[in-house]
Amino acid sequence: MRILIVGNGGREHALLWKIRRDEPAAELFATRPNAGMAALCTGVDLSPTDVDGLLEWAGEHGMDLTIVGPEAPLAAGIVDRFQEAGLAIFGPTAAAARIEASKAWAKGLMSRWGIPTAAYETFTEAEAAEGYIRHAGAPVVVKASGLAAGKGAIVCATVEEAVEAARGMLAGDDFGGAGDTVVVEEFMEGEELSIFAVCDGTVAVYLLPSQDHKAVGEGDTGPNTGGMGAYAPVSLVTPALLDEARRRIFEPTLAALADEGAPFTGLLYGGLMKTDEGLKVVEFNCRFGDPETQVILPLLKSSLVELLRTVADGRSVEELTPVFREGAAVTTVIASGGYPGSYEKGKAITIPDGLEDDDLTVFHAGTRRTSEGGLETAGGRVLAVTAVGASVSEAAERSRAGAAAIDVDGAFFRRDIGWRERARTQEST
User: Average pLDDT, whole number, for the chain?
Assistant: First the structure.
């Protein structure tokens, strides 16, 4: 089997790592792989967003399956193009990818179909947004409608903060074109959860629920990032809560997308809030989450390739049941100094020999090889150190120790990943 991974971040390294275990004899390829991925595959010198180039390359090299990691090529229609050419590819069409590519469109879909989410309004003019914010009051959430690498949502404690955020997007250049339309929505109280659903257009099977830490600072403080760590499973997600997510959110959303001519095939990621009024959608993503993928896949015992190829081949996933190992996984993200703001690249990375083992894996994100063969930083999120243990507390301790053993000049990491789960565990003992 010949498999192409589109993308080169931490999520794609985790996908590649799992696929190598599922299919050790497969020929694996990836677009401009980072330093960690390069040891597991053959590099393809094309950008993940070069849809024309990737289509031509995949056809010429006889790919049996292409798996798309990031959202940008999905929004650009890579799945549509591959399917038209008769090439198997995992991911949603451009029409279905609007569930992430346009928060305004996604909120409209949820509103039309009665899918629970925060109350909202959308704006394209700063003055109108300001008037609404001053009337609605704070706290409030201001979101860039387009793709903003997971950093386009700003939780604002005061009206002035919200006005500044909206103006920065609509009248300034914050988040570029992603901020041409802004969604202003109510602030929801509760705990956020990530649930991944592998969808064939009609039916979904669910992977292990997880929880990520978006905020840059300890105790979930500071600005949002692309994710500073994650853990799985989440004891808050009982069978009853998962059933609620299926009935009230995922199944109606799949039905809505199909009815509106955009059936969803691929990975539908629901960012959900457990509120006093039940589960509500914070946002949908149209692809595997990062860093949640880095904790879910190490716990997945059954074949990921079987799931993804079933969808890519146009078959039903109804009879497939993912199997997970006992225990828990925690990943700690090591980030460049200054992230999520400006940061320098080219900082030396030293990973001690023997650090990784069967239960500790270092997934690379923003890394590259130097001309001398060493490792250096090439992005804001550099590494994700994932540990597996009998409990979240045990896995968190191992993940934290692993991150501390790695030397990256000027980098930092949160030492409290999984703190909510550990607090729940302590409360129940």
Answer: 95
